[in-house]
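Help!! Second protein's tokens look totally different from the first
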Amino acid sequence: MNDGIDVSIATRNSSKTIGKCLEAVVKNLPYRKIVVVDAGSNDGTLNICRSRGVQVVNEPGCLGKVRYIQALNCETEWIALIDSDVYIYPQWWSKVSPYMNDKEIGLVNCVHDNPLSKLRIYDDFLRFFWKKLGGIAFSNTLIRRNLILECKEELEKTHAGEDSVVGSYILKKGMKNVTINQRLCFHDKDPFKHHPFACYRWGKSIRMKYGFSGPYYGGFRGIKNKIVDWCIFTTQTKKFSLKLLMYLLFLSAWTIIGFFFPQRFEN
């Protein structure tokens, strides 16, 4: 498809989901080529990718570096970044692609469906802030390739929040990030189970960026921000939940663990 876009998928031990992810991309996107950037899988992920005939690049560095390598190995002006556990719905392309014609827009993504969580109030919390503030996530994103390449220096020291790094850069350039408030894909991951490790990676990223001043950025300030967010959510939705508050503080604890023990829970 010479008039299509390049698609890149970041993987690491994604054998349970990468097959479905690739099937959805092939079926629902006008791709020119598919590039998989793998961060060191040892579970058969690469065998599945190669059996589908997609290009595979190895990059064992931090997630920010992986994102840069994804863009570096693509060639089209706009590229699609799809997480290895995301399945694009058929209507995704028709909803996001019109924004490619707007020169002021640098990034487009959408909200997604998730498996039912064990803590449904946390799902409500996430959707509340997504709807209120919008969201930047590379799980299902159409983005101008050059905007990632221009963030090389910052990305190479970022292990979590790399999407926010690029999103902030886009805003500084006077461009816009667009979040479509429609569920146009399925993210095969329960945030309740996934986010502790995401916060752990965020703590590791803070250490890479700020050194030993990091506990303030990721620990104390993070705790304060989560309490404030809980208060806003509780006040505006009238949904009071101590379980939610305890879980948010639990996430802050994982950020601190990631800072002090950056290699302990990596696999």
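Here's the second one for comparison:
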Amino acid sequence: MRAGRTGEVDAIAVHIRTIITCSSLRWLRKADTRKSAKDTWAKVREFIKGKANQTGEQVDGLMAQRFNNHYAAISTDTDYSAPRLKLTAHNDLHYITEMCVFRILDTLRPTATGIDQIPAWFLRLGAPVFAAPLARLFHQSLTTSVVPRQWKTAVITLIPKIATPAPSDFRPISITPVLS
């Protein structure tokens, strides 16, 4: 494609697609989905991974690893360099102001504490002190496109849907830290 030979690339892609489709149809023709879904999925897995013969060698089937190995062998570019990471926001722009964080913290409603064990009432009470550092932290998170791992961790609590629940009568509630 880099050489501008997109017509040839398209022709090869169509040829490969045709071969894969014919092979898939041949391989899966014997599977009867109405009779047994289990057998059908076993056939699909056999097709994808290949079927091992007595010596343990993979035969038949279409294995993705074969394609990966082939393209890894022929796709070498000594001039390749990884692209630079792109920032989604500029450092000089402040999208989250200290006042905005203060207002949000000051109006927090009571809620369950997350894994960090910081209650909402504590953040609401300390809003004047916490607003500036949290604004900087939120801004840095946006500019680097990274959310702190601790903010993505949740505690899953099972709540029963009915008075006398069976194991399937629970609904999961995900409790994340208040700051997230």
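Reply: Different proteins will give different token patterns, so don't panic. Residues 53-61 have pLDDT under 50 and may be disordered.
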